Amino acid sequence: MDIYHTIIRPLVTEKSTSQSGGPDGEAGATYAFQVNLKASKSQIRDAVEKIYGVKVVDVRTLVRAGKTRRFRFRVGQTSGMKKAYVTLDESSKIDLF
Description:
The protein contains three helices and six strands. The chain is of the alpha+beta class and 97 residues long. It has one domain (3-88): Alpha-Beta Plaits (2-Layer Sandwich), CATH 3.30.70.330. The protein is elongated.
């Protein structure tokens, strides 16, 4: 899988901003990304290291299942998503957040 198809977008929420050290940033912080559902931890690690030029220490993933939604008389399903929490080395920092 191409590294630019592995990482979909960074997740900028209140929780992810506080884990990343806030706007000032902090070394060794954890960053959250939405990733491709088929991406493995090693592919996520390689993509983050190559795109942002940082050293990744740990990758944790979770899959959020899609929710059931109704529209008029039909029942449908929203698409699920996969999140990756990436912890960086003490000497690395991403200025994105």
